Amino acid sequence: MDQLCIVTTGGTIDKIYFDDKSDYQIGEPQIGGILHELGVAFRFNVIPILRKDSLHITAEDRELIRATIAAQPARHVLLTHGTDTMVETARVLASLKDKTIVLTGALSPARFRGSDAEFNVGCAVGAVQALPPGVYIAMNGRVWDPSRVRKNVDANRFEAI
Predict the structure, then answer these.
(1) What's the rounded Cα separation, in Å, for the pair 108 and 110?
(2) What does pTM read for this prediction?
(3) Fewer Cβ in 10 A, N or C end of the chain?
């Protein structure tokens, strides 16, 4: 991997809560800081394009995400995304060929102690380097085919369908 291209769209990984998880805003992308703290041995660039909860991502937003990734010369792309509609965005990205694209996010904000953000980012970084071209989701310690996974909202985890 020459360089990892990271595209950010917001989601829980970047949320800042002001009072008991009710009033929030999407803050600056956290992934660059996570990778710097972990001392990764590869170059990366971060392209922040949206700051939205994934429930508010529209078809136009998904096209912007697809077009942004398509325009990048990098073959390896990591996309941070909210978990509620991650699968829908992954399906839109399936039209992109010759790139390995891995979507990841977090079920609790990266700023929270005990967040799954670092673990999911680490899993996604390994997956984007090891997998053949295609679109994948890295959540809950697994790498998923977007056509065979869903988010179980009640259990707050991804699971096979």
Answers:
(1) 7
(2) 0.95
(3) C
Q: Is 68 among the residues known to form the active site? A: no
Of 8, 9, 12, 89, the catalytic one is 12
Which residue reads 């990266």 in tokens? Answer: 110
Where residue 25 falls among pLDDT bands split at 50, 70, 90?
Answer: confident
Q: Which domains does the chain have, with CATH numbers?
A: 3-160 (3.40.50.1170)
Q: Is 9 annotated as a binding residue?
A: no
- Calpha distance 95→113 (Å, rounded): 37
Edge-to-edge order in the sheet of strand 100-104: 43-52, 3-10, 76-80, 100-104, 134-139, 142-144
54 is in an annotated binding site: yes
Residue 32 in tokens:
């660059």
